[in-house]
Write a structure and sequence with these properties.
With 320 residues, the chain is an all-alpha fold. It has helices spanning 2-23, 32-51, 62-89, 92-99, 102-113, 120-137, 144-194, 204-232, 234-238, 243-256, 262-280. The protein is globular, with a radius of gyration of 18 Å.
Length: 320
């Protein structure tokens, strides 16, 4: 039941993210970093409001704030900046494919940080998912700067998950989301100044789209994702980054009334196969220990693992 619920929450988060890629086409011409800062500011206000409605939880201590700042700087600020730079020097297919390797990165790095060996089955499943993503996005061209920026976005994607894993058990999904969004706002505005973005008031359509990104994508998807992570563990939850191309394909086909091509459909089927391998084999399931601290894969002498991973894509990039 815990695995099923966690899987459902992660799928929901990636489905919301997939829809955002389609609807973000309405803000292609709006300054991206300024738009992201506005989106996270609105989301932070909503999330802090939600945090006051339930039982009073712990406030982040100095260590928590350091981790949350690193999370906002790498997983939100640097992630968006790297994609912005990457799309100026590389095709979207290249950027999407490199970031799409995140399931494999998490399947390997998360157990190593727990001082465990990566699960061979989960690593194999992640490799299948990455292969499906490569097929889905296809080829593309890039220069050295584009590849470095895409790799930077990949690192941001992985670090977002690993750093969230360190604070989720103590702060919970709502406060982790709220503080990371709030801390990302000044960082994104600083990035906008560095790249000399010219902020301007959005049109009505752009304002509505940014509102959707703030509420559905950031608040809704963050909460679904983080709660899913607490039930699955980083390595297995990371596999669901591979659901993004699937949800993007389905939503785009519905909105545009156009069936996808055979190549993209084949990539999606490969992603689905990888998810099935990783989630439903009869190996040990990563999950939080009763103490709320990350453990290792289920063994008689040790308690099981913990959570964390992604959804907060840059607007109109077509990537996760």
């Amino acid at each position: 039941m815990r695995t099923t619920t966690g899987a459902g929450l992660c799928v929901l988060a990636m489905t919301i993210l997939g829809s955002s890629v389609t609807f973000s086409r309405a803000i292609v011409d709006y300054p991206p970093l300024t738009g992201q800062a506005a989106r996270y500011a609105v989301a932070a206000l909503l999330l802090f409001g939600l945090s006051t409605m339930g039982a009073r939880g712990p406030r982040p201590g100095p260590r928590d704030l350091a981790i949350l700042t690193a999370l906002a700087a790498t997983g939100l600020g640097a992630f968006n900046l790297c994609i912005l730079i990457g799309l100026r020097h590389a095709d979207p297919a290249v950027v999407g494919t490199v970031i799409g390797a995140a399931p494999l990165g998490l399947a390997i790095s998360a157990p190593l940080l727990r001082r465990d060996r990566p699960s061979g089955v989960v690593v194999a499943a992640a490799a299948v998912i990455v292969a499906g993503i490569v097929i889905f996005y296809g080829g593309g061209s890039s220069d050295a700067i584009g590849l470095l920026a895409a790799f930077g976005a990949f690192l941001g994607e992985v670090l977002f998950s690993l750093l969230a894993d360190a604070v989720l058990p103590r702060l919970g999904a709502v406060r982790t989301s709220a503080y990371s969004c709030a801390l990302a706002v000044p960082l994104l505005l600083l990035c906008a100044v560095v790249v000399r973005e010219s902020p301007r008031a959005p049109t009505l359509t752009q304002a509505l789209t940014l509102g959707y990104l703030a509420t559905a994508l950031t608040v809704g998807a963050f909460l679904a994702w983080f709660n899913g992570l607490r039930r699955l563990g980083v390595d297995r939850a990371g596999l669901f980054v591979g659901v993004l191309p699937v949800s993007t394909l389905v939503v785009t086909a519905l909105v545009d009334h156009r069936l996808p091509g055979l190549t993209r459909t084949g990539g999606v089927l490969l992603v689905a196969a990888g998810l099935s391998i990783g989630l439903f084999h009869r190996g040990p399931v990563a999950m939080l220990s009763r103490t709320g601290r990350p453990g290792s894969a289920a063994r008689p002498d040790r308690t099981p693992p913990s959570p964390a991973a992604s959804p907060r894509s840059p607007q109109a990039s077509g990537t996760g």
